[in-house]
Design goal:
Elements lengths: L3 H10 L4 H8 L18 H14 L4 E6 L5 H8 L6 E5 L2 H15 L4 E4 L10 E5 H4 L17 E4 L8 H9 L4 E6 L20 E3 L1 H6 L6 E7 L9 E2 L2 E2 L1 H8 L3 H14 L4 E4 L3 H13 L4 E4 L11 H9 L5 E4 L14 E4 L6 H9 L11 E7 L8 H4 L24 E4 L1 H13 L3 H15 L7 H7 L2 H9 L9 H7 L5 H7 L2 H11 L7 H9 L7 E2 L1 H13 L13 H5 L3 H18 L5 E2 L6 E3 L10 H25 L1
Parallel strand pairs: 1-6, 1-7, 2-4, 2-5, 3-4, 5-6, 8-15, 8-16, 11-13, 11-14, 12-13, 14-15
Antiparallel strand pairs: 9-10, 17-19, 18-19
Helix pairs in contact: 3-4, 4-5, 21-26, 22-23, 22-26, 23-25
């Protein structure tokens, strides 16, 4: 039988036939022929629209679409929101907002739209394109500008930024019928668990690998080039190298200039983009290439250097082949398309997987006569060197594998990945020197603490910001996993506050440890624990009515109902009575909590479930309440993360 699941599996594994690619080479259409474009969904967009509609039918009010750069996510948002009366589109760059306005106008055929940014503050329009830096300020998130329910549909573009405070203020203020997050970045790659903001509801995703296999993006020919620049003396600050330190390594480094130029010439290019570490670095690269007869410019914000050029002007020059290379600083990571690019050069350490994939994505767009893009990555002994092979596979988690295993990886169709043999030796050498996993976990903890400006991270904050490799290791190795014994972990590194030490030294610690480690094949215990937590006014016992209230509040949210046993549709779930809800709660989680260790959960007359009276004092302590809330939130989120991966 061919059902939705079968069709989905077929679509995921479909590859564009080689003959179709061959025929495309002989397409003789004159590139200057004017063809009227029809704005209709195509390819992956059609699948995504169908998946989003199904998700809303299942009760979802938030969803995340993860699609590789080049799939047309902005048009997807325009198509999906077309039937909604008022739409808010939020992004962090002005050019993304301008491009989005064009896309929405083409789909909605309406001039009823405006902008909300540093220059103008339009209100009362059907579609508003808002800068996060402006709208995210508390003075604008008021009834005077927009009521919380003014917009019926909210789009957050480049959703991997949504963990920042400004985005969070916007997401928490508005109450749309549906919120759509868009990202090209796979889950947790930078440790930013954006999926929790969308309740781990991912109606549709198409990875980089799938997009290339389907012919939606061109293949890459990736060359890992050995760069003997020594980074070993440089220190990472909040996960990044200092700009000045990198300038000291790069500026006037003639040997490095020669190396970059040599490989640029070797792999030939009509239109190239080089990613640099600083304005000075971009200026120097443009100067050096011009000196060698390759017309180049530097592009960065507030450009005022000898070789700098305004971005849009530089793009036109590159398209018209008036110049050969743009050397850029953070101006082309997102939202800017030059489809005809045939080369991208990584000229600085790319600490972030997100940024690596964004920069790679600049070169993967399909363009007339373009068969592939050359990627030149100049790699030295910097932190996290050697991740590229795994990212090129579409962002698959590295786990405990090392970069010199790259030959075993299955890359997308027609792609090439080639490393200088000296790099393989370098990766092996760096591997030997790497810290023990316990030290890496501690180091990662302190990095996250630094990111939080010295605040001790909660479990949720550590989960949200932790490097994906280390987090995955923790999940697979119970003994070293700090999330299974977080107060112990903080105690060992002297990070507990005085009030937390008080909780840690008494019975409160035992109870918290129980809920931290209680078996959770399913999520059913969490709504019961939320009932006890009671928004911070912790209870010693819960009544039948309080269990039902907490239970329904939990399963009514988004698509949480899908975890409800033996329920096959949202309509079926809505028909369940309070009596049936209570029966499920008592026959499963309440029964198992009573059977769990140390007899903390007990029968109490007149109540559905109670906890031991010895906890009466500690449940009033703020540190206990905070720990309890953090455990329940983290365990719920980790369950949904696990469910998402397994599906």
């Amino acid at each position: 039988m061919i059902d939705d699941a079968e069709l989905k599996a077929y679509s995921k594994n479909w590859h564009k036939p080689a003959v179709a690619k061959d025929l495309a080479r002989y397409d003789q259409t004159d590139p200057d022929t004017k063809v009227e474009e029809l704005f209709q969904p195509r390819g992956a967009q059609i699948e995504a629209l169908c998946a989003l509609e199904n998700s809303r039918a299942e009760g979802a009010s938030r969803g995340l679409v993860h699609a590789a750069t080049g799939i047309g996510k902005t048009y997807l948002a325009a198509f999906d929101s077309a039937k909604y009366e008022r739409v808010l589109f939020v992004a962090h760059r002005e050019e993304i907002l301008k491009q989005a306005a064009v896309s929405f106008k083409n789909v909605r055929h309406s001039d009823d739209y405006g902008f909300f940014d540093g220059k103008q503050k339009d209100i009362g329009k059907s579609v508003i394109f808002a800068s996060v830096a402006t709208l995210g300020r508390s003075e604008y998130l008021t009834e005077e500008y927009f009521a919380p329910d003014y917009f019926t549909y909210l789009v957050i573009d480049e959703f991997h930024h949504a963990v920042t405070d400004q985005y969070q203020r916007i997401v928490n203020y508005f109450k749309p019928q549906f919120m759509l997050g868009l990202t090209a970045t796979p889950e947790r790659m930078d440790g930013k668990s954006i999926y929790e903001i969308c309740d781990y509801n991912v109606p549709y995703e198409i990875t980089l690998k799938e997009a290339i296999n389907k012919g939606a993006l061109v293949p890459f020919h990736y060359y890992g080039i050995y760069d003997e620049t020594d980074y070993s003396t440089l220190k990472l600050v909040k996960g990044r190298y200092d700009e000045k330190d990198l300038n000291d390594k790069y500026i006037s480094n003639v040997k490095r200039y020669d190396l970059i130029y040599k490989y640029y010439k070797k792999y030939r290019s009509k239109r190239a983009l080089g990613f640099c570490s600083s304005r000075m670095h971009a200026e120097e690269m443009a100067k050096e290439f011009c000196k060698r007869g390759v017309k180049s410019v530097a592009v960065y914000s507030n450009a005022d250097g000898e070789f700098s050029e305004e971005r849009n002007r530089a793009i036109e020059q590159l398209k018209n082949q008036e110049i050969k290379v743009i050397f850029s600083v953070d101006m082309f990571n997102e939202g800017v398309d030059i489809a005809s690019l045939d080369m991208v050069m990584f000229l600085r350490p790319t600490e972030s997987p997100t940024v690596f994939l964004q920069q790679l994505g600049r070169g993967l767009r399909i363009s007339k006569g373009k068969e592939y893009v050359n990627v030149l990555d100049f790699i030295g002994n910097y932190e996290k060197a050697g991740r590229a092979p795994f990212l090129l596979n579409g962002g698959a988690c590295i786990g405990e594998r090392t970069a010199y295993d790259y030959s075993e990886i299955e890359y997308p169709d027609d792609c090439i990945v080639d490393f200088d043999m000296r790099l393989i030796d370098l990766f092996r050498e760096m591997d030997k020197k790497s810290l023990s996993i316990q030290e890496r976990i501690k180091q990662e903890y302190y990095r996250v603490k630094e990111l939080l400006d010295g605040k001790v991270p909660t479990r949720m904050e550590l989960f949200t910001n932790m490097d994906d490799n280390i987090y995955e290791y923790c999940m697979k190795h119970s003994k070293e996993n700090p999330f299974k014994r977080y107060m112990d972990f903080l105690y060992e590194i002297h990070e507990l506050s005085a009030e937390e030490l008080q909780v840690y030294s008494g019975i409160g610690r035992e109870f918290l440890q129980l809920i931290e480690t209680t078996d959770m094949q399913k999520v059913y215990k969490m709504p019961i624990l939320y009932g006890f937590y009671n928004e911070g006014d912790v209870r010693l016992a819960v009544t039948d009515a309080e269990v039902v209230e907490s239970w329904k509040k939990f399963f009514d949210r988004g698509t949480n109902w899908k975890d409800f046993p033996k329920v096959t549709s949202y309509e079926e779930y809505r028909k369940i009575t309070d009596k049936q809800h209570l029966s499920k709660a008592k026959s499963m989680p309440i029964k198992f909590l009573k059977a769990s260790g140390k007899g903390f959960f007990i029968d109490k007359d007149g109540y559905a479930l109670g906890i031991r009276d010895e906890l009466a004092d500690v449940i009033k302590v703020d540190a206990f309440k905070q720990q309890m809330k953090d455990i329940i939130e983290y365990r719920t989120m980790e369950y949904y993360r696990r469910r998402y991966i397994e599906n």
